[in-house]
Amino acid sequence: MTVYYTITFLLLAAEMGTFCVLVAPLPYAVRKRLLRFLSENPLIAKLAYALKITFIFVGVLFVDALQRMWRVTAEADLARNQGGTLHDARAETGFAARKFYAQRNTYLTGFCLFLSLVLTRTFYILLDLVHTQEEYAKLKQDTAKSSRDTIAAGDQSKQVAELKQRLAAAEKKARDYDILKKQAEQNQVEYDRLATEFNSKTGAVSDKRKD
């Protein structure tokens, strides 16, 4: 295996390991820290940029390997249609090796590109999931706080209503007391008038204290 296909194989193995780590049932706190590290670390950003360039070369290798596989397959079909047979064991072995290497390189580069797309999509889905869970937790806290405030406001409203009722009762008692006081004063005035009138007719002196 040449150097660039060896690098492609190592890249594929790294992608498989990263994918297994991402889809592993990790605790929420660990997953959150891991995704935040991968999305916010500047070194990871530079590494991701380098990997994008690497995947461009892997794509070129995939196209080349695909063309080689088609060429070998076309040569095999041509030899079969012409009725030719490979009697030489070395030639037959070499042809089979070329076909095997072409297919291997095609599958290797193809799976590497496909897994890179799957890995990228999985990473962003998990990142959105973590952000959604954070927003849900904040919304839950805000809802609980607003519920407590609503309950407190309801208690305050009840207290205000009760105080208003007490104030209304006190005002009613004060009005009743004022009415009774006025009635008592009016009765006293009327009594004095009648006593004065009675004394003036009878010629007696009115003693209000005794009366």
From TrEMBL:
The keyword Cell membrane does not apply. Residues 1-138 form the BAP29/BAP31 transmembrane domain. GO terms for biological process: endoplasmic reticulum to Golgi vesicle-mediated transport; intracellular protein transport; protein localization to endoplasmic reticulum exit site. It comes from the Eukaryota. Keywords: Coiled coil, Endoplasmic reticulum, ER-Golgi transport, Membrane, Protein transport, Transmembrane, Transmembrane helix, Transport. It is found in: Endoplasmic reticulum membrane. Residues 153-197 form a coiled coil. The chain crosses the membrane at residues 6-31, 43-63, 107-130. InterPro entries: BAP29/BAP31, BAP29/BAP31_N, Bap31/Bap29_C. It is a multi-pass membrane protein. GO terms for cellular component: endoplasmic reticulum membrane. Its main location: endoplasmic reticulum. PANTHER family: BCR-ASSOCIATED PROTEIN, BAP, ENDOPLASMIC RETICULUM TRANSMEMBRANE PROTEIN. May play a role in anterograde transport of membrane proteins from the endoplasmic reticulum to the Golgi. Belongs to the BCAP29/BCAP31 family. This is Endoplasmic reticulum transmembrane protein. The lineage of its organism: Eukaryota, Fungi, Dikarya, Basidiomycota, Agaricomycotina.
